[in-house]
Every structure is written in C-alpha cells, then in structure tokens.
Amino acid sequence: NHPSTGSSPPLFFQNGTPITDPETMYASNPHAAYLDGASIIINHADLHHPIIAQLCENLQQTFPHVYANAYITPASSHAVEAHADDRDVLVVQILGKKKWKVYKKVPVEFPFVNEQVGKNGNEVDSSVFKGGLCFQDKEVVMFPGDVLYLPRGYVHEATTEDSNDGTLSHAPSFHTTIAIATHDWCISVLLSETIRQTLDGVSKYRKALPIGPCDEYENSVSGEVGSPPG
Q: What is the longest distance spanned by two Cα atoms in the chain?
C-alpha cells in the first residue's frame, strides 16, 4: 500500500492464477514474486508515477475518466486469462515484447462491470475462441513504443511465451493499460442519472410506493380506472 496515495498493493498472478496469500508466499514482496515467475499488476499506476499520471491528466482533457494499470510479466508466462473489459483500453508497450490475441466475436456488447466475461466467474464461451482473431486473423506482437486499442467488450489475452517465429525469444514484458472508462458516460447511464436527478427534484416522486393495500392507493386506482369488478 502506498502511504501517500492510499492506493492498493500490487497483485500477483502466476500463469492466470491469482496469488491469494502473497504475504505468506512472498512477504508481499513483488521482487520475490517476480523471481518466482509471477506477474505483477499495479492498479492505478497513475497514482505511483508522475509520467503516467500526466498522460492520464492529458487524456482527461478529452475523456471524463482515465486511469492506468501496469503489468510486469516474466518470460514464458502470462498474467491473466482471456477476458473482456467494461472499458476501452489503450495498451502501451514500454519494455520487452508481448504477444496478443484479440478475438472477433464479442460475447456481450458494451458490457458493464458485472458482465465482463473471463472475470468474477463469468466464463468466456467457447464460440469466442472458435470465431477467429482480429487483425486479419493474426496474433499481434507488441514492441516498445507500440500502442494497441482494445474496444470495450472485446475478449483478449496476452503472453510472453515463445512465438513460432522466435520474435519473443524468452523476453519479459512491461506494459501499461490506459483505461478509458466509457461505461461511466454511456447513454443509458447518463439518461438514467438525468431522469433520477429530475425526479428527485419533485417532492411527490420522493414518496415511497405503498406496500400492500392502502386507502390512498385504492382510491387513486378506482378514481382513474374505475372500481374492480366483483
């Protein structure tokens, strides 16, 4: 935990499996975890590094909400399994190389946080993997300075495992994902917020709905649509 920012401690993953007790295994030391083959994930890396923070601030001149996560993955490994995100993402490769698969078939269009496949028990349907890859059905190898755009909802996975053509050659990887939280300002969210704010300003709409029969409810119904038959 970073004392000056209150940010969360780094997460440790080993080939897609989260290390649930990093204190016991590594004394929560990221160096020890990395040397043991674990990937290190730093959420809100913009709270840790001024250059990343400045990049996010610059992007927020255009987008309402931007933050960054950082991923350090040792050679011949991967951090997390295939998944989709509830936000648009810009992947910036900083050091080393990483191989990406981005799948054509989108299982949930424009997902919200509880609809992200590959996370929180939401499985990725096998049809996604059978539906082919983007980029002319090819894997993409990211080199330092490369930027990859991942639209919200597209299933993707990345690895430093060896490529058939030798382009990865046992290299570790460090990349940053710039998260553009488009779910925060999608049409349904903005409309529902606007409608709620409008209704909240009218006192009669603040009343609770009645639970069970009551005179006010019955009189209102009978006065508008007539008494029920029988």
A: 82
